[in-house]
Amino acid sequence: MSFNVVTTGLKFPEGPVALPNGDVLVVEIHRGTLTRVTADGTTTVVAELGGGPNGTAIGPDGRAYIANCGGMNATEAYGYVFAGGTPEDYTGGSIQAVDLETGEVETLYTECDGVELRGPNDIVFDTHGGFYFTDHGKSNGLTSDQGRVYYGAGDGSSIRLVASEMNGPNGIGLSPDGTRLYVSETYTARVWWWEVTGPGEIAGGRTLAGSGGGNFLYASPDFRYFDSLGVEANGNVCVASLATPGICVISPDGELVEFVSIDTDGDPGITNICWGGQDMRTAYITASSTGKLLRFDWPRAGLVLNNQAALV
């Protein structure tokens, strides 16, 4: 599938959000910023976030909500940049909200029931004004946290744990009708799902010993790690693939619809996908290890996310 390079020089970009005017927001983990990219590739820093901003979603108030992992070490191998581990200046993870006009940053959550957020990674809003987010956890090279999924109120008033004991939960998304929550796991290259029974209430249990109590959807038979995900309007789940770079398109029944291979200077770090444009068939994909934002003419429409259409 052909693509155009929108811009280069980003410092490990993730969390793309397509805006109605054709701009795209990305977070840059190794720069600690929320950045706006225009159609001609011009970049402008919207806000200085610090830590390691990892995922972005637009809230009902029009602010950009950031899953901030608290930072990761930048390492280089074979000419590519990677992100991982726990930096010396790490102080914890957080959920932040950014006013897109002023760049003002508000920190909404740093803990849940006395347990600190370790590595918030990706985030998605429901129709009730709340959001689900993954906490990938942290590693010190000897031990690693078990990952978790949380649900937070958009106004910062409440947060609760909804799934735990996961192996690197990363991408998160809702089905078009909002009745399923999907989560991709990095290290197992698996996708899990739960039935959404109410705002911040999920039910799994159909798979014996499913990660986080979830139901099994898909596991990759090939060598890859899973990063973030996006959902097409028809319900397919598109998961970014690391190491074997591209996008796995998975049906709601757990079948592999297609694998879209992506080669941009051999970048192994394909991390995120989102959609924009009038017909939602313009896909934006982050190639993080070479610092690029890519634009594709996608064969199917992406899902219009909650609050996305309300932006001006």
Automatic annotation (TrEMBL):
<dbReference type="InterPro" id="IPR005511">
    <property type="entry name" value="SMP-30"/>
</dbReference>
<dbReference type="Pfam" id="PF08450">
    <property type="entry name" value="SGL"/>
</dbReference>
<dbReference type="InterPro" id="IPR013658">
    <property type="entry name" value="SGL"/>
</dbReference>
<dbReference type="InterPro" id="IPR011042">
    <property type="entry name" value="6-blade_b-propeller_TolB-like"/>
</dbReference>
<dbReference type="InterPro" id="IPR051262">
    <property type="entry name" value="SMP-30/CGR1_Lactonase"/>
</dbReference>
<protein>
    <submittedName>
        <fullName>SMP-30/gluconolactonase/LRE family protein</fullName>
    </submittedName>
</protein>
<feature type="domain" description="SMP-30/Gluconolactonase/LRE-like region">
    <location>
        <begin position="12"/>
        <end position="288"/>
    </location>
</feature>
